[in-house]
Write a structure and sequence with these properties.
By secondary structure, the chain is α/β, with parallel strands linked by helices. Helix content is about 35%, strand content about 25%. Strand 9, helix 9 and strand 10 form a beta-alpha-beta unit. The radius of gyration is 20 Å and the shape is elongated.
C-alpha cells in the first residue's frame, strides 16, 4: 500500500458521520491527494457535517475521492464538493457557474497553507531573489489580489512594500531575467503585476505557465527556472522529503481557502443544517 493510500485509509478509519439517521443519501466530493483530503475532511468536521472519531458509520453520506483538478467538472453530479480555491477561480474564468461557498475553512486551517515563492537553496539570499520578494510583497500586489478574487484568494502580506528593497543594488541587476514557473490562476495573473514592478528596474520576469503540479519544483531544482509560485508550504515540504530536492520558500504571498460548494444542492438542508 502506498503512503498516500495508507493515509487515506487511516482518515477513512477516523470518519464517523453525524446525524446520519435523519439524512437521505448525500454525496460529497473531496480531493484524493493526502494533504487536501485531510483539509477537506477537517472543513466538514469544523462545520458539524462529520465528526472525526474512532468508528466508521457511513450511512447517509458518501465521501467520494476525486482528483482535485477534476472536482469542478463532476460537481453537477454530486450533492456537494469541497474544492480548492484555485480550481474555483479557474472554473469561473472558464465560464463555469459556481455558487458562493456554503462553508469556508477557518483561518487556522488556511493561513498555514499560504502559497509561497520558492527558489533553489543557493539563491535564497541573492539580490535577484530579494528584488523578486519585494515586488511580490508590494501593496500593489496585495490590492490586486483583494480587488480581483473576491475572497477566493486572500493576501497574507501584513507589511506591504512599495515594490522595492532599499538594500538591493537594482543598477547591478538591470538587464537580468528571472524565469518563474507558475500555474495559471491566480499565480500567473498575480505575477503579471510583479512583472510590471520589476520592469521599472529593467528586470525581466519571464512567466512560464504550467497546467499541472509536478514539474515546477523539478524545474527549480534543475535550474530551468529560477523560482516557482504554485504551492503551499506543506506541499513543498512533501516534495523535499520525497525527493531530497533543494527548493526553499522565500516568502508567502496569498492563501486560497477551501470551500464546500453545492452541486445538486443549493443549501445545507440535505445535511440537516
Amino acid at each position: 500500500m502506498t503512503i498516500r493510500k495508507l493515509f487515506a485509509a487511516l482518515l477513512a478509519a477516523l470518519l464517523i458521520l453525524s446525524s446520519v439517521a435523519a439524512l437521505a443519501d448525500v454525496t460529497i466530493g473531496v480531493p484524493d491527494d493526502t494533504t487536501n483530503e485531510a483539509r477537506a475532511l477537517q472543513l466538514l468536521a469544523d462545520n458539524g457535517i462529520i465528526e472525526l472519531a474512532a468508528d466508521v458509520v457511513a450511512d447517509g453520506i458518501e465521501i467520494i475521492e476525486i482528483q482535485a483538478d477534476q472536482i469542478v467538472n463532476q460537481l453537477a453530479d454530486l450533492d456537494y464538493a469541497v474544492i480548492n480555491g484555485n480550481y474555483v477561480m479557474d472554473a469561473l474564468a472558464a465560464g463555469f457557474e459556481i455558487n458562493t461557498p456554503l462553508a469556508l475553512e477557518s483561518e487556522d486551517a488556511y493561513l498555514p497553507r499560504a502559497n509561497v515563492i520558492a527558489v533553489k537553496g543557493e539563491n535564497v539570499d541573492a539580490d535577484l531573489t530579494r528584488a523578486l520578494v519585494a515586488a511580490v510583497r508590494s501593496q500593489k500586489v496585495a490590492d490586486y489580489i483583494t480587488e480581483t478574487y473576491g475572497g477566493g484568494a486572500i493576501s497574507v502580506v501584513d507589511e506591504p512594500t512599495d515594490g522595492y528593497d532599499p538594500d538591493v543594488d537594482y543598477d547591478a541587476l538591470a538587464g537580468q531575467t528571472i524565469v518563474i514557473a507558475a500555474t495559471p490562476t491566480p499565480h500567473a495573473q498575480i505575477l503579471e503585476v510583479v512583472k510590471e514592478i520589476l520592469a521599472e528596474k529593467d528586470i525581466t520576469l519571464d512567466i512560464e505557465v504550467f497546467t499541472g503540479y509536478t514539474e515546477e519544483n523539478p524545474a527549480v531544482d534543475a535550474g530551468d527556472a529560477y523560482a516557482n509560485y504554485f504551492q503551499h508550504q506543506p506541499y513543498l515540504d512533501s516534495y523535499v522529503e520525497e525527493t531530497g530536492g533543494d527548493v526553499v520558500s522565500v516568502t508567502t504571498v496569498h492563501t486560497e481557502p477551501m470551500g464546500l460548494y453545492g452541486g445538486k444542492q443549493a443549501d445545507l438542508s440535505a445535511l440537516g443544517k
